[in-house]
Amino acid sequence: MDFRQIVAGMLTVTMFLMLAHMIKRDHFDPPPHHHLHVNHAGRLDNSYSEQNFALGNDGQLWKPDDLTNVVLKPCWSKPVLEEEGSRGFVSFSLTNGPEYHISQIANAVVVARYLRATLIIPDIRGTQPGDWRNFGDIYDIEKFVNSLNGVVKVVKTQPSELSAKNLAVLRVPNRVTEDYIADNIEPAFKSKGNVRLATYFPSVNMKKSDDDWNSVNCLAMYGALELQPDVQQVVDSMVKRLKSLSLKSNGPFVAVDLRLDMLDKKGCQDINNGDVGGSKKCYTPLEVALFLKKLGFDKDTVIYLTQSRWDSSLDAIKDLFPKSFTKEGLMPMDKTSKFLESEEYEKVIDFYLSSESDVFVPAISGLFYANVAGKRIASGKTQILVPANIPPASSASVTNYVSQYVSKKSHMAYSCFC
Known about the structure:
This protein has 418 residues and is an alpha/beta fold. Helix content is 38%, strand content 15%. It is built from 14 helices and 14 strands. Residues 6-67 and 269-277 have low confidence and may be disordered.
């Protein structure tokens, strides 16, 4: 064998070894993880039965088995009235948006059942004087009545005999108790014959409860309210579009509750003297964007913001996540004149869309976050991340930012569903 043949042989062996190394690297070595990757297994209705979230340096964010989004079953037994006789009426209005509606409905049902009174289906009041609409404009009346059949008697319209003279108007705290009803509501009901309730919220109380009275609360909060078909269709079309965009980006779609008017009201002040990493009541667009980036969300992540219209202050999010949208860029054109000109419809869309997103990020603490969390827990969508100002040099473990409603199972939904 001459010198040229020896060199040719050596080159052949070298090329073979290099090719073998490339094949091994591509097929056996784990790929470098720098972004959040999501695999979807779709159903025919464009919803998703499985999601596999893998995160950067932390490996698996959630295991695939934890992301099947299996709808939980109600743990409560439907409480049936032992007495059919009605002794008056309970009336009320729904105000301030769906996160309040859920609690207002629950209070009214609990009070009406205790008093053996007939519940009058409420109207819906907006924030401006004279701004009101019928219950059926947003919610399904028949499903509401049927869900409460045997629990309380319900009428669809206010009886003609009901007047201000025989009506006691009472302010009632959220998650009213039997003792409170007996001491503060029943005497007025017996005196006047009818009561009108206005629920107030001394605190956001979503703690678990295992008492017998909880079955009525669970049914009223999670089994009574459903959107009427036209409104549900708009929500479904927006969810479908966002999920379609997220599939193209090979990532999740994230709903962020970020309303600029609420940020101004709360002031976004640090609770822990402004220390980095401390908890806050709310987070600015830039803080939310940096939080998501620090956790490893890819720049192509699709983000829905509950802010009504795009504002220049939201550019901080769009700079890092170009596929960020408000509802005006997603709603079907033939629906905008109706649904974008009404604050009540906008609130409903935000609430239910946040309940259906792949991931939910509450940039604002409060009842919206608490009641969206409840609906997500009930449907198995427990991917809720609470923002924080993560120090630049620290490693960001996503599991440290999962909502305590989920990580500690402290939400009342866990006493309603199993």
